[in-house]
């Protein structure tokens, strides 16, 4: 088998790998089943019946819509901020060598490399010290900070693949800095930025640990879910919301995967 | 000589032409403009906050009034390390992080190994997405899924009943420490959820390091007379180790700082994250909460230092 | 004759490294000029200094008599064919070629027409709608050439333009480049590490070593009369002979060079030698002789009977063929 490792694999390995993948996916699939159960008081298995009623109930829930709307706004604004800051940073780091370049990469990665609770409590205590009341913007402040790294990683990877010669070629042919940016640089990094933006959006949309510290009384969708997890009150609605969240986050991930197929960095995610 | 034929062209009119020329003449100006916004943001918002947090850990709380005393003291740290309950919490969290890490590595290995060495073409993409989708899907939904699975009336117990194996579950639950009244309020439950949630973080670096093992190295090993198991322990394992350590940075660090998983699924005994959360929230003791966050930071700093010495960063 | 590009005491240092060190050079209008040297000798940096991608640490460059100090690349009427071609991957071939015109604000129809003409010039008519990724190496090179010529530059810079091509294509492109340069009358400055390429294509050559120019001259000058050991070593396969040897055979104490084809076998006179080895090359033999402990390479025309290896023979050369070199290095 060693002489031809690409075609045959030991059966035990196959089984172990398949079991591992099932372990990763079955729990998520379970969510889809529960969204259609008729049982409302417990997590009874197997579901006693099938119903679409909870989709409708959830649709008519103002608090869910409010939380969803807040999450979307936070994610959109944070992504926009992270796109600007992350791209600037990536451009600076990959265009030139300067003193302290390594520390900048570290600084960008730090908010996501340290456990989220540290970022969260640090922001909260800073808000406290500076007497900043919780608002939409305090959430965004936190989210944009840890979203920068996702955009940054994607942009840096693409800048690295875009040969510096292209920029020189453009300038050589008579394009000034802004024309080069518009006609050469942007078209070449656009998909990477789009992918980075989608991942940032997904990251922000799903974030709960930092948000609990920066949201005050506001409820983003994850915070709404967290409350349901700790004190379940409306299980059927939670089931439906969970399913929607899975679907909503899958789409940008799939899109980002196809946009960066050439080997950019989708794997750079931490809590 | 007409301008069209000049060797040096005149500057483009308008502010963009002038700005472009200026950036070319002074590249540091451009660099400065690029770096200022992100550095201001990260420097003020993030590093500022971290420093504020660090500063808070050197304040203390007046236990009678509940007010924070803003003068430098090491009392909070003294309180942290002399209270046996706090030591218990730290030990419990570190043990949990360690066992989650080891279990993740064991489960991740076959997946990473198969994906790196056997999966080709379509299957490779499938494996990649198969790891990537759980990695990116909602953290809370993943926890919620386990709440469904582990519930008394949930699918796991149902399976055990159907297979007439419930005595096995009972026997397991009656074990000390890892057992409990039911899985969803035992350490085992917490452990399972942690492993589930952080598993992709172990697979990816492991796979990356396995992919760097050239095929002919394995052929060379078997050519030299090594049995498959010997090839594994002597060739594959040492080469995969940096990847496993890189992955363990995530599994370990993420477990250390998490406060939601043990709160939702687990016994009521605290982990570091929960204490921090409770101290800063209901108890209002921000200095103690701040001091507590220093613990995972120091542990991770030490861990990263070790990992770096073992060459794990090349596998990231 | 006007000079197209002048380097006036130009240096480019990166910290301690002197990539280009005190360069003075005049490239004349309409010349096909080669910058020849081993890698790291400063030839590419010099080219990039002309294009404006690098700035001199000291000194300055003039292009057609105008100082280029502080002038960004996009304001220099100079275009470059890059070593890896640097074609824009997101643009079609025709858009690549028309890029320079677009930046100048030429209307869409006009620039399409001009770009088509350029593609014809480089023998790629009708390739406009393809993507650069779908072209062969040779075709890409032609597109890069068309793209650089579309702006009608005063000077065309070529950075190892043939480096990535295989031998046959390379010889063909050498001819075409020469032909193109003659037709357009544009000054070509090209960088190469291949001495054969430089000798066969250039009107004049500058030989670079460690950031300095060792010699400037016509190919014949450089080949027959190398000024220094480095040039003799790098260009061609001359025998480079140390001062002691030169003194013995020519009476002057200096380094000298002797081309292998200048060496001949003689019956009498000349110098005693031993044939160390020989190999048959078709029209001639490549022989190595030992002359008083010194090995000398020679090319002996085939036809005459060659002595056996180890035989004692006599070899000679015309006095004028032993070139005495001025410089030590």
Structural class of chain A: mainly alpha
> Which two chains have the most extensive interface, and how many residues on each?
A-B, 89 and 99 residues
* Largest beta-sheet characterization of chain A: none
Strand content of chain A: under 5%
- Known CATH architecture of the largest domain in chain B: Orthogonal Bundle
CATH-wise, what's the superfamily of the largest domain in chain B?
A: MetI-like
What is the oligomer described by this structure?
heterotrimer
**Radius of gyration of chain A using CA atoms only:** 23 Å
What's the rounded overall pLDDT mean of chain B?
Answer: 84
What count of helical segments of chain A does DSSP give?
11
Describe this structure as you would to a colleague.
With 271 residues, chain A is an all-alpha fold. In chain A, 73% of the residues lie in helices and 0% in strands. Chain A folds into 2 domains: 10-51, no CATH class; 61-259, MetI-like (MetI-like fold). Chain A has 11 helices and no strands. Chain B folds into 2 domains: 13-69; 83-315, MetI-like fold (Orthogonal Bundle), CATH 1.10.3720. Chain B has a two-stranded antiparallel sheet with strand order 1-2. In chain B, helix 4 (84-117) packs across helix 11 (228-257). The longest helix of chain B is centred in the N-terminal third of the chain and has 34 residues, at 84-117. Chain C has 2 domains: 3-233, Rossmann fold (3-Layer(aba) Sandwich); 238-324, Nucleic acid-binding proteins (OB fold (Dihydrolipoamide Acetyltransferase, E2P)). In chain C, strand 1 and strand 2 (17-28) form a beta hairpin. Classes of the chains: A mainly alpha (271), B mainly alpha (316), C alpha+beta (329). At the A-B interface, helix 1, helix 3, helix 4, helix 5 and helix 6 of A face helix 1, helix 2, helix 4, helix 5 and helix 6 of B.
């Amino acid at each position: 088998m060693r002489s031809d490792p690409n075609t045959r694999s030991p059966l035990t390995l196959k089984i172990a790998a398949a079991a591992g993948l099932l372990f990763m996916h079955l729990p998520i699939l379970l969510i889809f089943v529960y969204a259609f159960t008729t049982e409302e008081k417990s997590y009874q298995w197997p579901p006693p019946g099938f119903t679409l009623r909870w989709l409708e109930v959830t649709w008519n829930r103002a608090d869910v819509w409010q939380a969803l709307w807040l999450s979307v706004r936070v994610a959109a604004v944070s992504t926009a901020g992270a796109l600007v800051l992350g791209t600037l940073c990536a451009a600076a780091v990959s265009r030139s060598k300067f003193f302290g370049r390594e520390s900048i990469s570290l600084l960008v990665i730090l908010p996501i490399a340290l456990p989220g609770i540290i970022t969260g409590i640090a922001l909260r205590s800073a808000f406290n010290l500076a007497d900043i009341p919780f608002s939409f913007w305090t959430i965004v402040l936190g989210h944009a900070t840890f979203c920068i790294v996702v955009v940054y990683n994607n942009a840096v990877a693409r800048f690295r693949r875009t040969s510096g010669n292209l920029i020189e070629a453009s300038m050589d042919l008579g394009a000034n800095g802004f024309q080069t940016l518009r006609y050469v640089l942007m078209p070449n990094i656009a998909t990477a930025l789009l992918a980075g933006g989608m991942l940032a959006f997904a990251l922000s949309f799903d974030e709960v640990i930092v948000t609990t510290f920066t949201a005050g009384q506001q409820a983003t969708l994850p915070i709404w879910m967290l409350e349901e997890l700790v004190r379940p009150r409306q299980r059927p609605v939670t089931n439906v919301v969970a399913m929607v969240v899975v679907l909503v986050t899958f789409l940008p991930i799939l899109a980002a995967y196809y946009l960066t197929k050439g080997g950019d960095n989708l794997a750079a995610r931490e809590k | 000589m007409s301008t069209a034929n000049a060797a040096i062209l005149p500057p483009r009119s308008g502010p963009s032409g002038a700005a472009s020329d200026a950036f070319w003449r002074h590249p540091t100006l451009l660099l400065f403009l690029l770096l200022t916004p992100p550095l201001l943001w990260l420097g003020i918002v993030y590093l500022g906050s971290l420093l504020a947090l660090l500063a808070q850990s050197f304040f203390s709380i007046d236990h009678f009034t509940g007010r924070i005393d803003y003068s430098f003291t090491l009392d909070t740290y003294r309180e942290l390390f002399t209270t046996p309950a706090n030591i218990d919490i730290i030990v419990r969290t570190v043990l949990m992080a360690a066992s989650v890490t080891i279990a993740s590595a064991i489960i991740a290995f076959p997946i990473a190994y198969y994906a790196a060495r056997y999966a080709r073409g379509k299957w490779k993409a499938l494996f990649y997405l198969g790891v990537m989708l759980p990695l990116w899907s909602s953290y809370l939904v993943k926890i919620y899924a386990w709440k469904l699975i582990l519930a008394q009336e949930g699918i796991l117990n149902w399976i055990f009943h159907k297979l007439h194996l419930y005595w096995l579950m009972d026997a397991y639950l009656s074990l000390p420490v890892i057992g409990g009244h039911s899985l969803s309020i035992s350490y085992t439950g917490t452990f399972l959820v942690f492993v589930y949630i952080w598993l992709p973080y172990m697979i990816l670096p492991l796979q990356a390091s396995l992919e760097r093992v050239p095929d002919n190295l394995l052929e060379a090993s078997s050519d030299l007379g090594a049995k498959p198991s010997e090839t594994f322990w002597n060739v594959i394992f040492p080469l995969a180790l940096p990847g496993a350590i890189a992955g363990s940075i995530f599994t370990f660090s993420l477990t250390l700082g998490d406060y939601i998983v043990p709160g939702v699924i687990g016994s009521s005994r605290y982990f570091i994250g929960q204490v921090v959360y409770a101290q800063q929230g209901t108890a209002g003791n921000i200095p103690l909460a701040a001091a507590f966050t220093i613990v995972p930071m120091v542990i991770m700093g030490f861990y990263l230092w070790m990992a770096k010495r073992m060459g794990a960063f090349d596998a990231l | 004759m006007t000079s197209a590009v002048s380097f006036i005491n130009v240096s480019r240092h990166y910290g301690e490294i002197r990539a280009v060190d005190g360069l003075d050079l005049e490239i004349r209008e309409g010349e096909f000029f080669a910058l020849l040297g081993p890698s790291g000798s400063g030839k590419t940096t010099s080219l990039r200094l002309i294009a404006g991608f690098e700035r001199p640490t000291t000194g300055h460059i003039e292009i057609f008599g105008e100082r280029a100090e502080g002038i960004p690349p996009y304001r220099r009427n100079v275009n470059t064919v890059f070593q890896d071609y640097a074609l824009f991957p997101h643009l079609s071939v025709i858009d690549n070629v028309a890029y320079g015109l677009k930046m100048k604000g030429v209307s869409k129809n006009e620039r399409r027409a001009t770009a088509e003409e350029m593609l014809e010039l480089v023998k790629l008519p009708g390739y406009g709608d393809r993507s650069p990724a779908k072209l062969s190496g040779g075709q890409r090179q032609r597109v890069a050439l068309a793209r650089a010529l579309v702006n009608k530059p005063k000077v065309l810079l070529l950075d190892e333009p043939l480096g990535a091509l295989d031998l046959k294509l390379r010889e063909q492109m050498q001819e075409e480049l020469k032909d193109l340069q003659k037709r357009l009358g544009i000054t070509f400055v090209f960088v190469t590490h291949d001495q054969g390429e430089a000798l066969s294509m250039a009107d004049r050559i500058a030989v670079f070593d460690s950031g300095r120019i060792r010699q400037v001259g016509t190919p014949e000058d450089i080949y027959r009369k190398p000024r220094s050991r480095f040039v003799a070593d790098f260009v061609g396969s001359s025998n480079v002979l140390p001062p002691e040897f030169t003194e013995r055979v020519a009476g002057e104490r200096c380094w000298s060079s002797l081309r292998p084809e200048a060496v001949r076998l003689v019956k009498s006179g000349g110098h005693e030698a031993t044939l160390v080895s020989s190999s048959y090359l078709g029209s001639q033999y490549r022989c190595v002789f030992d002359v008083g402990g010194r090995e000398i390479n020679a090319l002996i025309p085939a036809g005459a009977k060659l002595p056996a290896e180890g035989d004692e023979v006599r070899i000679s050369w015309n006095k004028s063929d032993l070139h005495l070199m001025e410089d030590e290095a």
